[in-house]
Design brief:
By secondary structure, this protein is α/β, with parallel strands linked by helices. The protein contains 18 helices and eight strands. Helix 12 links the parallel strand 5 and strand 6.
Length: 446
């Protein structure tokens, strides 16, 4: 979910902190709890400001790129993601103001904080939608008067959501591009296999960003693996086998080309070798897959089993609600350790009938992508150069095609390499990377 997820996390963190206020009023100010609440709110204000600036800058970047689909998706993500927040926020604030009045304290500050804070959150939650509206006007997809009406709706409580719903009911999709790439000549369709912790789509967001649509507009058949977010390699391999069988019956192509990210590459290798699907897979392209494991993940094996299984039980429950068929966080997370991957490689060697190639992404410094600050530093100490989750040396497998990164100081993260943020990195267009992969496969007769 990228940067919108950071903003939503910051807003809900503020809700938790604000929920402390009623408790403080009940218990009184003994023990310095007033100072604690003030400190927590100050920390949250800084966190909120940082995430708001990040998303505002990001939204303006999408506006300059003319990326209507991304602005549309992120507008929906932010607005719908805040619906539970607003319900809880009004309840907590009403309780706080009521307790302040009952305690005969001045309710002016509590009311001002509630109104001011609420409106600030409303405005910042509209930045993607505002950019979306301005871009629609710039490209003359809506009349100016309608544009002004939608801008006004985004400045009002509840009406902002109604205005977005009205916008989403209309289609402003990009027109089909003329196929100067029509002669790609890919023989077999493409199957995308996602990595751990996500599904093909979450809250309307495609795991692969703009890439599938970019390929489809050039006449390339694209399918998705439908694997579980935290299923084991074995269980996800079986899901892939069923999916490929359905694709081949539908497409009648005989084989498929797999493009897999992160742990999806291991699941695809298991599919080919252990489940004997080499006859149905023409090629496997892995993107930032930890084929040799992650040394930092070896530390997960040190945790007491009772604690690890307890956490796994909770994660499995959440994943089950989200749609996983057979979640197994305990097994699937430990499978990414260097020890388990070493055993996996010996047990499931590559099949000579399948073409294997790989790519690695690289962050250059810890600040290159904020969600990976701590994981990048940890892997830098244990595994060397990495993209925040996958070491570069571990990503090299089969015909290694090289490291994808920027020429500046940021680099491209584990999320950025699959277009999670839907942006270009200077001269690097992630969509073009995948188009190049497809063209090279076509040149090989695949």
């Amino acid at each position: 979910m990228g940067k919108p997820a950071l903003f939503l996390a910051a807003v809900y963190t503020g809700l938790v902190i604000n929920s402390i206020s009623p408790l403080y009023m009940v218990l009184g100010s003994a023990g310095g709890s007033a100072e604690l609440v003030f400190l927590l709110r100050a920390v949250w204000a800084v966190l909120f400001l940082i995430t708001a600036i990040i998303n505002l800058t990001y939204g303006m970047g999408l506006y300059k790129q003319g990326d209507l689909p991304a602005l549309r998706i992120f507008s929906r993500t932010i607005k719908w993601g805040l619906v539970p927040f607003w319900v809880l926020h009004f309840v907590v604030s009403a309780i706080s103001i009521g307790l302040a009045a009952a305690a005969e304290r001045s309710i002016f500050f509590a009311t001002a904080f509630f109104i001011g804070g609420s409106y600030l959150i409303l405005l910042t939650s509209s930045f993607y939608t505002l950019c979306y509206i301005f871009l629609l006007q710039k490209e003359k997809k809506v009349p100016r008067f309608e544009c002004l009406c939608h801008l006004a709706l985004q400045l009002c409580f509840v009406l902002d959501l109604i205005g977005l719903i009205l916008l989403l009911r209309r289609s402003f999709g990009p027109e089909a591009e003329q196929a100067n790439d029509a002669g790609i000549g890919l023989k077999y369709p493409v199957l995308f296999v996602h990595g751990a912790g996500f599904r093909d789509t979450i809250m309307g967001l495609n795991y692969w960003g703009r890439i599938p649509e970019y390929l489809q507009r050039r006449g390339i058949p694209v399918y998705f693996g439908g694997t579980d977010a935290w299923g084991s390699i074995e269980s996800n391999g079986k899901i892939l086998k069923e999916k490929i069988g359905a694709i081949l019956r539908e497409n009648n192509a005989g084989k498929i080309n797999i493009i897999a990210h992160s742990r999806g590459g291991l699941e695809s290798r298991y599919l080919i070798t252990a489940l004997q699907m080499d006859h149905a897979v023409a090629s496997l392209t892995t993107i930032s897959t930890p084929h040799r494991g992650v040394r930092a993940m070896n530390m997960a094996l040190w945790f007491p089993l009772w604690l690890y299984r307890g956490v796994s039980f909770f994660v499995n429950g959440v994943c089950k609600i989200a749609g996983d068929k057979t979640p197994d966080f305990f097994t699937s997370s430990r499978d990414l350790s260097e020890k388990h991957c070493g055993a996996f490689n010996k047990k499931y060697p590559d099949n000579e009938r399948v073409y294997y190639q790989s790519y690695a992404s690289k962050l250059k410094y810890f600040f290159g992508d904020l969600p990976f600050i701590f994981t990048y530093v940890l892997l830098r100490l244990t595994d060397g150069d990495n993209d925040g989750l996958c070491p570069i040396e571990s990503a090299k497998w089969g015909d290694f095609k090289g490291i994808i990164t920027t020429g500046g100081i940021a680099g491209i993260s584990h999320a950025g390499i699959v277009d999670s943020y839907r942006i270009n990195y200077g001269r690097i267009d992630i969509r073009e990377l995948y188009l190049r992969i497809v063209k090279e496969l076509a040149a090989r007769g695949l």
